[in-house]
Specification:
428 residues, alpha/beta, 14 helices, 13% strand, Esterase-like, acyltransferase activity, transferring groups other than amino-acyl groups, transmembrane, transmembrane helix, Mycobacterial_A85_antigen
């Protein structure tokens, strides 16, 4: 009987060791892949995640407490859904592999122990100490770096949230939001006439006698023109405060939608390319004839002459639209661009458009790129960004372009709110 028990224990140890080795191997592969991406914030985040996974796996194996692996399985599944997208990327598929290994280990090891009446060892508790230490350290660093610091303005690697004085309270001098209705066409499909609406932010004290910079700001998939200024109204509060405290000059912000009724429901990509026609022909003339910008005339010549006072930014598929339709479709009319959590634009597309004969001598005043360490768009953004910088001499890192990766942020307004804050301070 003792021999049979030893065999069962040995077989269980081999099984547990195999599960642990699999989790560790995937962790090592993941860290190499993230090191190659070249983002310190993303690499350190994954280092913490994978170190926690490995410590829990070792605790489950050496402590014969396989139920602990359920923690890795649950965390792996949650992170997989945050950090992957069925339509665009499966870069972090490795997390699902680790979750599957952990689930097999948790169920198989627990059943094995119960059947063999094998009790846990103390090593389980000891090996969990590094996991708890990681959690305490990371929580402390996160809390410290996101704490309000009213002496700082521009978000830095050690400041991961908008300072409270711009964000937490209503501004004593508040701008207003108006609706702008205009007629356009279904450029991606049948060219029919379509009535659309955009929201327009006007700064406090707006006057037709003054000239204002203008920012066009796009939402992402499934949202609409109200997303930036009404659905998440604290973006307007931040705009009010940045202007009130003199961090940015008063500006106009237009939030349109790239949707055109129910067109392209099965494949939205054509809308990301056709939006440039709506922008050039319909939206800009409507907005800049109604409000006072630096454009002396609302025609291509007037827009081109005032391009240095005009910016365009977007989040998620709105960022993709910014690249497809504006950076690579309206460089003659815009000089500042922000792409938050979205790319999907190969370097060849840039070369075809911004390096064309018509655009090769135009200045690029600023290109700001951002993402979160848990954002499923991050890997593609990093790869596209580096490729474009290598191919385009007008773009110089730290001079007129930058990429921020926000620790612990994912594909959500928490990341995009901070991105808008940084973009406004860097681009204007």
């Amino acid at each position: 009987m003792q021999t049979s028990g030893r065999i069962k224990k040995s077989a269980l140890d081999i099984f547990s060791m195999a599960v642990t080795f699999g989790i560790c191997l995937v962790a090592a592969i993941d860290l190499v892949r993230y090191a190659v991406l070249g983002s310190g914030a993303a690499f350190l985040t994954m280092l913490v995640v994978e170190a926690a996974f490995v410590c829990v796996a070792l605790a489950a194996w050496r402590g014969r407490c396989h139920a602990l692996l359920a923690l890795v399985a649950a965390a792996g599944v949650v992170l997989y859904f945050y950090m992957n997208n069925a339509e665009t990327t499966q870069f972090n598929l490795t997390l699902l592999i680790q979750a599957a290994l952990a689930a097999v280990g948790a169920v198989g090891g627990t059943v094995w122990c119960i059947a063999g009446r094998l009790s846990p060892r103390r090593a389980a508790a000891l090996l969990l100490i590094p996991v708890l230490a990681l959690a305490v350290i990371c929580g402390g660093v996160w809390g410290g770096c996101t704490a309000a610091d009213d002496k700082k303005t521009l978000a830095e690697p050690c400041l991961w949230s908008v300072p409270d004085k711009f964000d937490a309270v209503d501004c004593p001098e508040q701008g207003r939001v108006e609706e702008l209705n205009y007629t356009t066409k279904a450029y991606a499909t049948d060219g029919r006439s379509v009535e659309k609406r955009a929201l327009v932010y006007l700064p406090y004290g707006y006057s037709e006698a003054e000239e204002y910079d203008i920012l066009y700001l796009l939402h992402g998939t499934g949202d609409d023109e109200e997303y930036w200024l009404r659905t998440y109204s604290y973006n307007k509060t931040m705009l009010d405060n940045l202007i009130y405290y003199g961090e940015v000059q008063p500006l106009i912000v237009v939030t349109p939608t790239w949707y055109v009724e129910d067109d392209c429901e099965g494949n939205l990509d054509p809308l990301t390319y056709s939006f440039k026609q709506e922008l050039r022909s319909d939206l800009m003339p409507a907005a800049e004839s109604a409000y006072s910008t630096y454009a002396k005339t609302c025609d291509p010549e007037g827009f081109a002459a005032s391009r240095s006072h005009r910016a365009f930014a977007g989040l998620s598929r709105g960022a993709v639209t910014t690249l497809h339709s504006v950076f690579n479709g309206c460089l003659d009319l815009f000089s500042r661009f922000g792409t938050f959590s979205g790319s999907r634009t190969p370097v060849e597309y840039f070369a075809e458009h911004i390096q064309s004969e018509e655009c090769k001598d135009l200045s690029i005043d600023y290109w700001y790129v951002s993402s979160g360490t848990f954002d499923f768009t991050l890997a593609g953004q990093l790869q596209d960004y580096k490729a474009v910088l290598a191919a385009e001499p007008r773009l110089q890192e730290g001079v007129n372009t930058s990429l921020d990766v926000f620790p612990m942020r994912y594909h959500s307004m928490g990341s995009w709110h901070l991105a808008l804050y940084n973009f406004l301070l860097k681009a204007f």
